[in-house]
Model the fold of this input.
Amino acid sequence: METARLTWKQGLTFTAAVASGQTLQASSDKDEQGIKQGFGPMELMAFSVGACTAMDVISILEKKRQQVTAFEIKVNSERAENHPRIFTSMEVEYILTGKAIDPAAVERAIELSAEKYCSAQNIVKRSVDIQHTYKIIEG
Done:
């Protein structure tokens, strides 16, 4: 089964397509103003961890009838200075806004995502320690 296909455009820029038909640009190239032309591979890996756990956690909290009105995840990662510049640490910060959100429900949702449901996180944590933090904002 084909999961992703990358087609070379020029330099170090590729158009990536996945089985669902969605596309994005992956690149290490910069334009004349120094702006990157696409997502870097490690940026996509951090994004994958964030997206995967975000979907798990919000789904679990909705099933627990938590009144989340806004939800954001920040993935902060450090990389080794020498090649292969792997992640050396990663922190996933969950920021939830809502009414009377139960901290125990949030902790359990994060735990279930980290230990059971999030495939991306479970792959990455084999080589790097992932820390989880959360903040609940009443509103």
